[in-house]
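Case study 2.
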Amino acid sequence: MRNFSRKFGIFTAFGLLLLSACSSEHRPKYWHAGSERPYEIKGVRYYPQTNYQYSAVGYASWYGPGFHGKPTSTGRTFDKNKLTAAHRTLPLPSVVIVENLSNGRKVKLLVNDRGPFAHTDKRIIDVSQRAAEILGFKKRGHVKVRVTCLPKESQLAAVKYKRKPYPSRRRK
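Prediction:
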């Protein structure tokens, strides 16, 4: 009987060890699941979207020097020279087209951060310094824009970031 208990214990331990190797999906160290959860900044609660349906007109500002080299909400390092943006509620990552309504210039950006949190009454997106240069408002600091999310490209970006993509539109 004693020999049986010992063999059973060893067999069980080995089985549990094998089972643990098959457990949860591996996420890279740069992925932060917290970017999907509601959050609060300056007393305002934000609820990230669970789909890619988004089109809005508002103001864009740009950010760069003070954030360059620091981690974004997705854990990636912010580079002011890349074509990226920050949005308060779009799923991370998302791909958007930002159009400067005063000159018609457009740029495709990867949304991989949260913001803007300054002048939030009218500002709907923060773009990188490079994106502001392309859109033609770096010197001015802010401009009226149209932001449109691209669902298919956003789903591809989510796969690249090793995250299950959201549906392209709201479920009914």
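The first strand starts at residue 39 and ends at 41.
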